[in-house]
Amino acid sequence: MELLGTLECCSPLAGEPLDTGQAVRLARVFKALGDPVRLRIVSIVASHAGGEACVCDLTASFDVSQPTISHHLKVLKQVGLLTSERRASWVYYRIVPEMMAELSALLDVSGALGGSREAGISGQGGGR
């Protein structure tokens, strides 16, 4: 699978529509994040001391097998959310900050919606 690379041409969703290629690439990233284990892996790595986590730290956080964790890590690397580095017999994972910044910028629709943030993740408020 091809790495996602940079999303250099993506503006906030409310600013202009995505083209087909952008939508396909972004769908792969969001599909990867749509799995609860993968989302937790990203959260653990991002919040871990020093900004990186050893695979040994990750496997201890889940009630799934090590090969399952390895599969999820591979998917996250393939879409460009994580990078890794082998040190002796352990592999350490880091968030790709540019990818997180681009996803954050893409989803920032506050300016296009007049700064309204009434409807949060819970879907409460906003009267829509």
Structural write-up:
The protein has a 3-stranded antiparallel beta sheet with strand order 1-3-2. A hairpin with a 2-residue loop joins β2 (82-87) and β3 (90-95). α2 (36-47) packs across α4. It is elongated, with a radius of gyration of 17 Å. The protein is 43% helix and 12% strand. The N and C termini lie far apart (39 Å). It has 5 helices and 3 strands. It is α+β, with helices and mostly antiparallel strands and 128 residues long.
Annotation keywords:
128 residues; alpha+beta; 3-stranded antiparallel beta sheet; 43% helix; 12% strand; disordered N terminus; disordered C terminus
Helix content: 40-55%
The total of beta strands comes to 3
Structural class: alpha+beta
> What's the helix count?
5
Rg value: 17 Å
* Unreliable runs: 1-9, 115-119, 124-128
Give the gist of this structure.
The protein is of the alpha+beta class.
